[in-house]
Structure formats: C-alpha cells, structure tokens
Amino acid sequence: MRRLQELEGRGEQRPFFTSDLSVNEFLLVKEAGFDPRGLVYGSSIYHIGLQRRNWSSNMELEKLTQAMYTARELAMARMEAEAEVLGADGIVGVRLDINYYDWGKHSAEFIAVGTAVSARGAEGSWRTDEGKPFTSDLSGQDFWTLVQSGYLPLGLVLGTCVYHVAHRGPMAAALQSMANRELENFTQGLYDARELAMTRMQDEALRLGAEGIVGVHLEEKSHFWGSHVIEFLAVGTAVRPAPGAAGPGHPQLMLPMDT
C-alpha cells in the first residue's frame, strides 16, 4: 500500500510510474490515449491437494482443476485491487506465472503482473459494467490496434482443466508398438480436456457481455503430477465494440509511420 500510495502521490505535474512495457509498447499505449500508472501484481501461494484417479480411465480431476483456477483468481483479484488503489481504468500486458519453491512439492506461487493504465479524458468509461478496471494480456501494439479499431477490452478470461489421460495396459502397449495406428484413447482424452478448458473460457467472456475473445492461447503443462496428468489452460482477452464505434472499418486504423 505504501508503494502504491507513493506512486499516486508523487506530484501532480509529472506523476511517477513503473511499468514492464517495452519502449515500443509504452509509446503505443500513450498513443492510444492511456497513461501508465504503475506496475501492479497479485500473488497467492497455494497448496494443491491430491486426488484419486482411475489408472485406466480418461477423467477430469475436478479437485485439482478447482485449485488451479482458485489460485489464479486470487492472484488476479489482488492485482486488480492494486490497480484500484492507483485509480486506474485498466491493466494491460497481464502475465500469469507459476513458481515452485523448496517448501513443498504440492505448493506453488501463482502470480499475476501487469501495467495499470488510465484513459485521458474518459474517466470511468473504460471500466467494466461492474465498475472494475479492465484486464488484458494483449501487447502494447495489439492494444493500440484494438483501441483504434473501436473495440473495448473487457477482461482477461481463462478456462482450465486438469485431466488424467488413461494408461495403456502392458498387452495393448506391446501390440501397438509394432504398428502405425492412432492411439484413440489418448486423442479423445486430450480433445475432451481442451474442449472443457475452451468452453469455460468462453463462458467467462459471455458473462462479461463480450462479443468475442482475441489473442487466445492454449497452454499444456504437467506441473508436478507426472506424465499422465496435464493441465490445459485457455487464456484470452474478451472484447466488444465501443458504443458508437464503427467496428473493424474504423477510419482511424492507420499505423504510425515510426512503427
């Protein structure tokens, strides 16, 4: 709180800020009509429990899914709270990371980091319907293009699924080792897990009243569970047209010559 209050109170003529934006991103965010307010982050050190699984069955491990989702939500909520302290309208360039330390195999630190920004001459109009700062993982360049096209970022949306992919029995593995063939149980398991993660991400965007999601990326990690348990994470930025905007054909969509 002291750090944020120092950023907020450092002279009105030229306020001090911190940012993890690159130089190009910083200039394009400024060009889009936003001023950086400060680097904001949230952290949650979370213990992830154990869950029984059927060795020979594809199945979601719902307890682990909920743990991974809750831990990220705690980190993001604390990042957003820091942006609120700065009076920001949104957070750009959000990163979600996980760090592991020596104090426990089943514990991890979930981190959310981004740059809080304020819109010049449009206080409050960039906030969500709930009055909270928007969040986005778009780069400064993509954020500039989005704004110039007449779209609003609503929030960083995510969906996750921790899934157990069934093992093959010794006989099946031996029979398949000499033949070229699809491993259908593996294909179906991974397909189902990705679908669950993407559907949950889309549901979050619909709850925000979004028209769509841009910049979607899928991550797959085993973390510390072993080769047959994988987390599928879908992340993107929910968007919708700004009131009165012309959409993708917006006449201001021209890149500056120096980019």
Describe this structure in words.
- 31% of the residues lie in helices and 30% in strands.
- It is an alpha+beta fold and 259 residues long.
- It has a single domain (2-241), classed as Hypothetical protein apc22750. Chain B (Translation Initiation Factor IF3).
- The strands form two sheets. A four-stranded mixed sheet has the order 1-4-3-5. It has a four-stranded antiparallel sheet with strand order 2-6-8-7.
- Residues 249-259 have low confidence and may be disordered.
What portion of residues belong to β-strands? 25-35%
The H/E string reads HHEEHEEEHEHHEE
Largest sheet, described in full?
Answer: 4 strands, mixed
Number of distinct beta strands: 8
Strand order of the largest sheet: 1-4-3-5
User: How many domains would you count in the coordinates?
Assistant: 1
The CA-CA distance between the termini, in Å, is 37 Å
CATH class placement? Alpha Beta
Tell me the name of the CATH homologous superfamily. Hypothetical protein apc22750. Chain B
CATH level-two architecture: 2-Layer Sandwich
Secondary structure: helix percent: 25-40%
Form type: globular
Structural class, from helix and strand content? alpha+beta
Tally of alpha and pi helices: 6
- Please mark out the parts with pLDDT under 50 across 5 or more consecutive residues, or reply none: 249-259
Radius of gyration: 21 Å
Mean pLDDT: 84
Question: In the CATH scheme, what's the topology name?
Answer: Translation Initiation Factor IF3
